[in-house]
């Protein structure tokens, strides 16, 4: 089966529309030309608008995957001699802590089981215990398990703690998962083009609130490529510091236009909730238990227990012959669980047909 005919049920890269794919062919463009400055400005203004952030945040566009945005966000938020507090209940919380470690930033952690959101009271207690915290970093949607963390409450706890910035990795939640970021007191928000916004991989972004704009200017540089302050300064002038992924920017521009024309955050979250209901009814009928309990589930990632005696690889390969690509579990859960994600452009017909293909694939691998 050729790749283009496959339905991706993965948490990125997410499937794209024909309009987004065609945008990649818009033609060659040098980033030093005024046409690129226009494109950059359009994207920088549109991203906070898409996320209902009004005029509160300013965009730094990053050429790189979501991890580049996480790294830029965290290292730009913590001053020398100060520390970070990472909320850790999955692979991406762990990654935030690793980023701190790589850069020699002292990192305190508040952990919970991977199937439970972190308790905001534990974050409040950690903030009271350590008076040197410059950034509380938390993953909005833990893609590891499909769990939504209580970022409104953790943000409120952070806001009441003085100088700490609230840094949100919203990479797999951007534009598709509640809570609406407009309700979250987030100083720094990381996102990417190729998940809920349905762009292509290659560009990500960091949105900075006022306090964060001041902070990144104050923090001494820890990286040549991922230092937010010079990127912000040059992007304000319509310039980019390094060669950007121009075609991925074209695609993001088209994806943003589609997102807004379809009704923005309200419409896309509704679409994702409808998809989740459709496929989760199927999982129920097929007897596939979901790891994360309601009300903590996201609408785009479902972590399912593998049927007894079935290996992920065998099930994956059977489903692929039927035109679906599913995703492995991560970390200590990978032997027993796998993920089906309803992220990106997916024809509804293909989601309706999933039940039959899953049933057939499970029968084929248990025969
Ligand atoms: C919540 C979250 N944060 C960060 C990342 C890292 O993004 P990337 O793989 O694009 O570097 C991912 C990727 O799936 C993610 O889901």
UniProtKB/TrEMBL annotation:
Q: Which cofactor does it need?
A: pyridoxal 5'-phosphate
Domain named Aminotransferase class V is located at: 30-329
Q: Where does substrate bind?
A: 339
Q: Which residues carry this modification: N6-(pyridoxal phosphate)lysine?
A: 195
Keywords attached to this entry: Aminotransferase, Pyridoxal phosphate, Pyruvate, Transferase
A molecular function (GO) held by this record is: transaminase activity
Q: Does the keyword Nucleotidyltransferase apply?
A: no
Looking up PANTHER family in the UniProt record yields: 2-AMINOETHYLPHOSPHONATE--PYRUVATE TRANSAMINASE
* The name this protein goes by in its record: 2-aminoethylphosphonate-pyruvate transaminase
State the organism of origin.
Nonomuraea fuscirosea
